[in-house]
Every structure is written in C-alpha cells, then in structure tokens.
Design a protein that fits this description.
Mitochondrial carrier fold; mainly alpha
Length: about 260
C-alpha cells in the first residue's frame, strides 16, 4: 500500500474520531453564527450573549441529545472524505517534491531538502482539491444543522401571532384561537434527512447550489497551507535535532507531531 493511501486512510480515521468528539460544539457554533444578526438587534435592549455551555444545555432540553448531533452522518462522511482527500493528495505532492529536491541536491543544486515556499504550495494545492471535491457535503451539513432551528423559529412566530389575535378577539373567537394554539404547541419540527436536503438545494439553486461559498472557502485554504508549511519546516528541524548525525534518522513520535497536524 502506497504512503499516500496510508496517509489518506489515517487522516480519514483521525478526522472521524475528532469529529464525533467535537461535533456538539460545532453544532452550537453554527447556530450561534446564524443568530448573530438577531443578537445584534437585541443588544440595544441590554440582552447578553449566552454561553456555549448554556446553549448546549438549552439545545438538549428542547431537542434532546439528538439535537447536538443533527447532521452528524453527512458530517462524518464529509470529514472522512475531506481528511482522506487532503492527506492523500498532500502525500502524493510531498513525495514528488521531495524526489525533485533530492535529485537537485545530487546535482549540487540546493541541500536536497524542500523549502518553505514549496511546502506552502503543496498544502495550498491539496487544500484546493479538497475544497472543490467536498464543498457539496459541507453545504448539506450546514443546512441540516440549522433546519430544526429554522422550523422552531417559524413555529414560535406563529404562536406569537396567535397570542396577539387572542388578545384582540372577542369571547367567541378566543376559544377557537386557543384550540389552534394548543395544537400548534404540540407540533414539533419535522425530521430532515440527507436526501431532502439534497433535493432542496437543487430545487433552490441547481447544481451550483452545492458549491455555495466556494470562493471564500478557497481563500481560507491559506490557513492550513501556512500551518502545514510551518509544521513541515519545524518537523524537519526537530527531526534533525533529535537524530543528530545518526543514520537512519529517528522518526518523530505522535506527541512531537501533535501541534498542528489537523488541516
């Protein structure tokens, strides 16, 4: 099995484990971002942002534990694909660039090692390929994470309208409106699956809808690119320092590599 395949599988497996552990925080973070405009409007009345922990507890109370993991299945698929694709292409490009650098070193051109700018280019290309292939998955994940919240807001708006109508209605209409309110309060957000999300995105925007936000996401590739450039440079120096002049050089341990592995 090639080193690229091994790195791709390792990246996918590690990404899945990390995603399961951190997914509740991601769900709350996504919902906080979608509510940002509403919070700004309330700022004038003295309302304060609630803590992440409080929002998690509130989410469990209103939607159960499943609410924290809304959209987890496609997210795991997206994480596995994203991490696998990134590490696979990163390793392929890394192997080729290292071979070129070694060949140049034998000819007396350079020291035979890869420079920082080359690491930056490798990470950027791998990140761009990853974004182009996996952006549709993350569009669906975000929609699934926020769908229940959107439906709940619609129900709350309907309740507010009914309460206003009740306050203005006569005695004969009040009982009818209260019955409608009781039925409305018993309603819960409808289940929202992956195929439904796929269909809605296509109906709204066609094929292009699956690549919404592509440009800013590609721009954000610079983040892991810089991260991996610094990582590879520091890893090379650390390995040289640990190994000294001994051959073969000792590989770095997982604890030594840990800072900055995730793209």
């Amino acid at each position: 099995m090639s080193s690229a395949v091994v790195n791709g599988l390792a990246g996918a497996g590690g990404g899945i484990i990390a995603q399961i552990i951190t997914y509740p925080l991601q769900t709350v973070n996504t919902r906080q971002q979608t509510e940002r405009s509403a919070k700004k409007r309330k700022a004038g009345s003295g309302a304060n942002d609630t803590s992440t922990l409080f929002q998690m507890l509130q989410l469990i109370q209103t939607e159960g534990w499943g609410g924290l993991y809304s959209g987890l299945k496609p997210s795991l698929i997206g994480t596995a694909a994203s991490q696998g694709i990134y590490y696979y292409f990163y390793q392929i490009l890394k192997n080729k660039v290292e071979d070129v650098a070694a060949a140049r070193g034998k000819k007396g051109l350079g020291d035979g090692t890869v420079g920082m700018l080359s690491w930056l280019g490798i990470a950027a290309v791998a990140g761009s390929i990853n974004v182009l292939l996996t952006n549709p998955i993350w569009v669906l994940v975000t929609r699934m994470q926020t769908h229940t919240q959107a439906e709940r807001k619609i129900l709350e708006s309907k309740k507010d309208l009914l309460l206003k109508e009740i306050s203005r209605a006569n005695s004969l209409e009040v009982s009818i409106l209260k019955d409608r309110l009781v039925k409305l309060e018993s309603e819960k957000p409808h289940p929202y699956g992956t195929f439904q999300a796929i269909r809605e995105v296509y109906c709204e925007s066609g094929i292009r809808g699956y690549w919404k936000g592509l440009v800013p996401t590609l721009i954000m590739v610079c983040n892991p690119s810089i991260q991996f450039m610094i990582y590879e440079t520091l890893a090379k120096r650390l390995q040289s320092k640990r190994s000294g002049k001994q051959l073969p050089k000792r590989n770095l341990t997982a604890m030594e590599k840990m800072p900055g592995l995730k793209p």
